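User: Hello, beginner here. Can you help me understand these amino acid letters and fold codes? It all follows right here:
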Amino acid sequence: MSLFSKLFGGGGKPAKEPEVYKDFRIFPEPQSGGGGFRIAARIEKEVGGETKTHHLLRADTVQSAEEAETFSIRKAKQLIDEQGERLFG
């Protein structure tokens, strides 16, 4: 994929709908590398009219992208349960 495609979104997969959990939006974003996929997600919530974002990145790896998405959502929900809006500082 060319640099311009990466920057402007050309040629990629269409964006998936986020999983909504306790008013937080979870976007699973597993990262490939090292023979597997790292667990990662973007967590967003509207706070005071502003979109706050937290990036979750774990060292855990799994074999498939689908499995990584499932675990990314599970870990994001766990983090939301533990920290709530404190995720955003």
About this structure: The chain is about 30% helix and 40% strand. The chain has one domain: 18-88.
